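Re: beginner question about structure tokens

> Can someone show what the tokenized structure looks like for a real chain? I only ever see the sequence side.

Sure, here's an example I had lying around. Input first:
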Amino acid sequence: MANQLIHKAATRGHADHGWLRTNHTFSFADYYNPERVHFGALRVLNDDYIAGGMGFGTHPHDNMEIITIPLEGDLEHKDSMGNGTVIKHGDVQVMSAGTGITHSEYNHNKTKPVQLLQIWVFPNKRNVTPRYDQITLDVNERRNKLQQILSPNSDDEGVWIHQDAWFHIGRFDQHFETTYTWKKQGNGVYVFVIKGDITVNGTALNERDGSGIWNTDTMTIQANSANAELLIMEVPMH
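And the corresponding structure tokens:
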């Protein structure tokens, strides 16, 4: 029998700093909920809205796999590895922080906001050499299918990380149905509704809701609204 937990959008941790509006699915910064520290290897799922010209100054990370997915607008990135890039909707950025990096993230536009998801995953190897990668995907390839955006394999579709994790994004027409099958036995899946209304394993989820599912190896997905969009994050549970 599958286990499933539900995190409704309105129950997330929230902070409004004026230039930054953010929602935390899991404990982060000033938000702490002992029931929501992580889901398996998934440690952070932040839903950020950054005002024009604003952003995060240079700050450090180590021993974490950090994935950034812009949903709208352009994010400017600089880091201690010498990378200076702009990531846009359709791009996926990954950093293996490993032994330690510093970086900054700013809204590239002075007048338009940028919206992004930032996700942290615990690595399966500590103190690796820090690494940066960024790719551009064809968002049309996720229309009524699950487009893989991340895996453990450098020669597979999407970016790769130091963990037995697989991420997919799908954008569905209303009433579209599909099934997701686990890539690795014993993993769990956390689904996050980016847009619209979707039923997962018989449970109705709305925009920005999340749900963790484990002790199974398949799940059913049905779109209940047009252009419903879903992020699937499969991660080890231990």
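Each token stands for a local structural state, so reading them left to right follows the chain. The first strand starts at residue 3 and ends at 7.
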